[in-house]
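Quick one, tokens below. Sequence please?
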């Protein structure tokens, strides 16, 4: 009899597993294998990352380094790439489009099944646990806009399993379940979204404390278990944690501005969206920045579920420790999501290391939503008790009054004569904004009253099914069920034949390209989608553009912003040597940026204005303006040069051309890096083709705390040199013009000169970085230097670059990928010193003769992390064996 019962339970469990596997497949069957991709927006970037990973494995190497973005990046170290996530194996067996769809659907199934396991352990009711698992599986937090952040979905997926292992430990006292907690937390960490993993860890720690308090475990055991649990977790994730720590140190990203941290927090008005989800949103996009966190509609779990959740808190908070713990955890993270809108709390959190470096506190909502659904299920289990049903009916009737009142108030306000027509159209009719929530509550009251009169189990089961169906249909309006995407033709992941004509040799092309983006607004323009979405990484074209989180400090010195538009004009006009040093040969210009800039070399023409010994008296920091008449010509370029001494950095200092009816802000001369350490300043101002008035003035405008002495100022009209073109137009396609940088150096090249450097940026500022190698730590100058050494047999792979060097004397080879810990260089198989060149790239000395040189990325951080993780795995195996041995002897 017992064997039969056990077999029946096994069959039931198998059927439940199959149910959770089948539901997502059935729901998305029409797009599963037809070439469509269920991604959009940021999802394209994740698609590119996964494809890059799977292509590397398919070609027989582990992609530790990504040479296609910026001047090279450590691919494996960035946790957001999910390098060590086990479920990436899906991408090795399916085509990228199919793998992306399956990857998402597998996580939906796992999220639902893990929630079922956890719920069953709490409720001891398999039927309700299945219902709760299905509702979480199709909640908007997993099925809505987060599809674009598939690594957020994959991270959230593991939370219920982690909680399940802790609940099993609480119920069985078996220490192996604590091992399971550490292992499942490690898998979650590898999934690729550290912010969600961190929030999950915080919730799990609170639950861990609850488990030990509920079991009245003594403090000594609590401390011991905490040490074992967290210690093992850290050991298991070290293979990713150690390289990630190195990456954070190299990027210096540990501290961010408060505005960054508080970006996209929500306020208390978000609570109304748990009742009327259309209040601020349409189906998929935020409606109104004033109350929006950008992911508002994710909080909606169905008005029935929300009311049941509140009922559980109201009725069982003081009666059940589990309800109290779940409520407090949910409440904490709800407040946390508002941190940016709570000045004191926000500032405190911002100052906490690690926590304060993440933006969008609203991403903590998934913990709130998960426990809301769990407590909704808890209330469902109480529908077998008459007093609970009566209490729930009264509670629903109160909420019916509340929702009707809110709807009436909103309708009244939005139908006033001064209300904008757009708002009247949305809120001024009895649409789904008001009707659906009211109807759902009325139906729920009717069902509960039917349940109250009939105590049959089949009625109870039917009522639960009806409630679940209504919730799923209701929430389904906001999930991916009604938003299917096909991005097969997206510019970011579709090869471009025009680009192919330039970059034919994808595997060994020794040059980079650069998509010009000259202002932040252009990031939202579609003209250059292939650059904005890391197109180069997908199609294996080296590009200087990238969407990255961790920008190396050396690179950030030249590019403060990872999208690289801040210093674009300066790079094109004054720092061609820097672009050339980084092998930037092709420039993709979608906004005619190049033609508007000074992209050619100019020689001095006629001096049209000159003045010496100008004293700027601050006069209590009042604005100072010096104006002298000057004769200008249209469509001309003028160089303004000043020899000046600043005692401190002025609040305002610039020059311009001006008259009473002529003041073009585009012709203001703004100098970079003004300060006491610099004395010579120069800038070019273009008069374009504008008609100029007769009386035009050259002005110096300043505001400073101390006097400023200008020793000399000069304005020259410039003339273009013949044959001085730096950027040559070579192709146009799709409103994009392609220019070739004629000075670009290849990936490996021989500089004209080598100079020992102290490693300061001042030592190499405004120098010919493409011709001169400023080498940090070089013990002595290279004698008998051969700048005409020949590089041949170039072979480029993602983790290495090799070539044959033939020289008549000692020489130096520049390697234009980022100097990063883990890069080593070998000559004829023997490791030699790898130097930092120009404070950014790398290079080494090669002696006279013919040699084979190999630059290879082989990070020690990965080896250390692997060794530590291996210790963790051994400890897990030993613990399992010990527990098994103990059970056998008992």
């Amino acid at each position: 009899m017992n064997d039969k019962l056990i077999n029946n339970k096994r069959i039931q469990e198998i059927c439940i597993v199959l149910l959770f596997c089948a539901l997502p497949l059935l729901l998305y069957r029409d797009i599963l294998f037809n070439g469509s991709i269920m991604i959009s927006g940021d999802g394209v970037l994740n698609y590119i990352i996964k494809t890059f990973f799977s292509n590397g494995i398919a070609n027989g190497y582990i992609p530790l380094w990504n040479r296609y973005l910026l001047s090279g990046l450590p691919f494996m170290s960035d946790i957001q790439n999910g390098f060590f996530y086990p479920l990436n194996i899906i991408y090795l067996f399916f085509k990228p489009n199919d793998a992306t769809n399956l990857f998402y659907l597998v996580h939906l199934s796992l999220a639902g099944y893990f929630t079922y396991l956890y719920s069953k352990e709490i409720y001891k009711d398999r039927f309700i646990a299945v219902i709760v698992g299905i509702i979480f599986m199709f909640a908007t937090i997993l099925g809505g806009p987060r599809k674009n952040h598939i690594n957020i979905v994959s991270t959230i997926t593991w939370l219920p399993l982690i909680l399940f292992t802790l609940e099993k430990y609480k119920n069985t006292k078996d220490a192996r379940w604590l091992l399971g907690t550490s292992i499942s937390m490690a898998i979650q960490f590898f999934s690729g979204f550290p912010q969600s993993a961190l929030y999950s860890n915080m919730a799990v720690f609170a639950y861990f404390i609850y488990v030990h308090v509920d079991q009245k475990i003594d403090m000594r055991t609590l401390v011991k278990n905490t040490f074992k649990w967290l210690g093992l977790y850290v050991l298991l994730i070290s293979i990713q944690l150690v390289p990630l720590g190195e990456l954070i140190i190299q990027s210096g990203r540990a501290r961010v501005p408060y505005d960054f941290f508080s970006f996209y927090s929500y306020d208390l008005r978000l609570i109304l969206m748990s009742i009327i989800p259309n209040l601020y949103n349409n189906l998929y996009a935020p409606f109104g920045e004033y109350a929006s966190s950008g992911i508002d509609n994710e909080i909606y779990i169905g008005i029935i579920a929300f009311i049941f959740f509140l009922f559980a808190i109201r009725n069982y908070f003081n009666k059940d420790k589990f309800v109290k713990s779940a409520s407090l955890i949910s409440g904490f993270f709800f407040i946390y999501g508002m941190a940016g809108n709570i000045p004191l709390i926000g500032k405190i959190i911002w100052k906490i290391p690690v926590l304060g470096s993440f933006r969008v506190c609203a991403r903590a909502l998934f913990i709130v939503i998960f426990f809301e659904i769990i407590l909704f299920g808890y209330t469902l289990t109480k529908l077998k008790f008459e007093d609970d049903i009566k209490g729930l009916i009264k509670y629903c009737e109160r909420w019916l009054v509340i929702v009707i009142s809110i709807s009436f108030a909103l309708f009244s306000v939005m139908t006033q004569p001064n209300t904008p027509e757009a708002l009247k159209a949305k809120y001024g009719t009895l649409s789904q904004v008001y009707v659906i929530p009211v109807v759902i509550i009325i139906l729920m009251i009717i069902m509960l009253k039917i349940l109250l009169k009939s105590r049959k189990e089949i009625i109870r089961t039917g009522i639960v099914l009806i409630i679940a169906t209504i919730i799923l249909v209701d929430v389904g309006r906001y999930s991916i069920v009604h938003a299917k995407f096909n991005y097969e033709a997206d510019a970011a992941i579709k090869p471009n034949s025009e680009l192919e004509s330039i970059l034919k040799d994808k595997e060994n092309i020794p040059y980079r390209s650069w998509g010009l983006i000259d202002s932040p607004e252009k990031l939202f323009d579609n003209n250059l989608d292939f650059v904005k979405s890391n197109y180069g990484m997908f199609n294996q074209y080296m590009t200087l553009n990238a969407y990255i989180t961790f920008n190396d400090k050396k690179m950030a010195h030249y590019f403060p912003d990872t999208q690289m538009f801040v210093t674009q004009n300066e790079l094109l006009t004054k720092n061609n040597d820097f672009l050339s040093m980084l092998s930037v040969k092709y420039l993709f210009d979608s906004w005619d940026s190049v033609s508007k800039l000074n992209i050619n070399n100019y020689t001095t023409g006629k001096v049209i204005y000159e003045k010496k010994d100008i004293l700027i008296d601050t006069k209590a920091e009042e604005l100072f303006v010096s104006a002298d008449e000057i004769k200008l010509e249209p469509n001309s370029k003028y160089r303004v040069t000043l020899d000046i001494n600043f005692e401190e950095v002025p609040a305002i200092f610039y020059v311009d051309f001006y008259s009473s009816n002529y003041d073009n802000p585009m012709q203001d001369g703004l100098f970079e890096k003004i300060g006491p350490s610099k004395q010579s300043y120069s800038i070019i101002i273009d008069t374009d083709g504008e008609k100029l008035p007769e009386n035009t003035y050259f002005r110096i405008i300043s505001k400073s705390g101390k006097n400023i002495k200008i020793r000399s100022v000069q304005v020259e009209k410039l003339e273009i040199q013949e044959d001085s073109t730096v950027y040559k137009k070579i192709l146009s396609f799709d409103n994009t013009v392609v220019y070739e940088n004629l000075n670009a150096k290849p990936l490996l090249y021989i500089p004209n000169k080598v100079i020992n450097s102290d490693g300061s940026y001042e030592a190499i500022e405004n120098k010919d970085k493409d011709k001169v190698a400023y080498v940090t730590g070089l013990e002595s100058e290279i004698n008998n230097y051969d700048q005409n050494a020949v590089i041949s047999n170039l072979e480029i792979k993602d983790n290495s670059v090799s070539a044959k060097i033939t020289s008549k004397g000692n020489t130096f080879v520049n390697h234009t990928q980022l100097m990063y810990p883990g890069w080593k260089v070998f000559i004829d198989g023997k490791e030699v010193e790898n130097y930092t060149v120009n404070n950014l790239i790398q290079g080494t000395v090669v002696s006279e003769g013919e040699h084979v040189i190999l630059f290879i990325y082989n990070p020690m951080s990965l080896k250390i992390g692997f060794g530590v993780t291996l210790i963790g795995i051994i400890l897990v195996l030993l613990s399992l064996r010990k527990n098994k041995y103990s059970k056998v002897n008992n």
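The two ends are 26 Å apart (CA to CA). Residues 281-292 have pLDDT under 50 and may be disordered.
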